């Protein structure tokens, strides 16, 4: 474990009450960051923050609500004085359905959290960097679904492709200011997201089977994704911006036409 890469830095992690965000909060904290644990589930956020090894603050917030975003930012600055690192991670699957059966409400709900939520977080981050007159570093959770399709998850796939657009556009704006913006595209990692999918008719309940067909022949662990996030948020990736890094056991390189 590399200690201290984030000593003296403040990090905000959204969707940090569970799964990949929780692992990210733990990793950043273990390397010295003060961490603001943001989640729509306030109880989960409190539990994660209380267990972190370093300074931490839990904030209940819905990332798709502008006022909530302003609230977590205000609380972070009031507690720690400034914010350096953002892992904008909160996201939802939506309902499994094929195209004719997708409701407009479900499409908009997924876009609202996965795209509008990421936009609001990005905008708040840049506004805060300008206010504190020094930049930082941002990572957005994209997905293998940012790079590939899926017949029964169109809203999710569309939203995660849009996250790539956010990464590219924000990196273009941030680059001359010394602010890096990258995306992280996890493959299959058993979290509550997938547990919920497994109970959904037609959902991804063959997760282990699908993971076994990837080059590394297994699902990923949340800690492995968190390690890649830490890389992107650290100076170890100082010449990388505007990229979406797959952390997927090689899943995104598989040619299903000619295996
Ligand atoms: P998860 O369901 O385990 O955790 C997501 C967390 O986000 C939960 O604590 C939930 O309460 C919170 N959340 C949901 N909506 C929110 C909102 N509107 N505002 C604030 N918090 C909210 O899911 P996960 O697997 O950890 O997924 C995290 C991110 O990783 C998502 O963006 C997801 O799309 C992405 N992802 C996950 C996988 C995977 O295999 N698990 C693969 C690719 C991408």
Automatic annotation (TrEMBL):
Pfam families: adh_short_C2
Signal sequence interval, chain numbering: none
A GO MF label: oxidoreductase activity
Entry keyword annotation includes Magnesium: no
Key word Cytoplasm present: no
Keywords: Oxidoreductase
Domain of life: Bacteria
NCBIfam families linked: PRK07231.1
Family according to the record: Belongs to the short-chain dehydrogenases/reductases (SDR) family.
Protein name: SDR family oxidoreductase
Lineage start: Bacteria, Bacillati, Actinomycetota, Actinomycetes, Micrococcales
